[in-house]
Amino acid sequence: MDATAEKWNEMGVHLANDCGKYEEAIKSFDEALNLDSSFFAAWHNKGNALNKLGDHDGAKKCWDEARELEPGFCTEHQGLYVSNPKAGIGCYSLPGPSPIARCD
Length: 104
Known about the structure:
The model is unreliable at 75-104 (pLDDT under 50). The protein has helices spanning 3-18, 22-35, 40-52, 56-69, 73-78; strands at 81-84, 88-91. A hairpin with a 3-residue loop joins strand 1 and strand 2. Helix 1 (3-18) packs parallel to helix 3 (40-52), helix 2 runs antiparallel to helix 3 and helix 3 (40-52) runs antiparallel to helix 4 (56-69). A two-stranded antiparallel ribbon has the order 1-2. It has one domain: Serine Threonine Protein Phosphatase 5, Tetratricopeptide repeat, CATH 1.25.40. The chain is mainly alpha-helical and 104 residues long.
């Protein structure tokens, strides 16, 4: 995995989970995916951010991509599947603080 892609993904997680800045988070996940299109965690996290913005179809596509790249990721690492009537079954990140940057 590209170390720079990992940093972009971490920034996106921080922006989404700690700051609620989902559009900016999606840009960070896209940067990570531009560097490494097989980075399943970035696909998963982008899906979470899209879902928060109400783009359930886009979220499902990202989650499907993540599961195709790493089928056991959600159950092994997140431990949480949630049924969403608009998007089907999706993987949701568990919240947690990230010390990457300030939200303001």
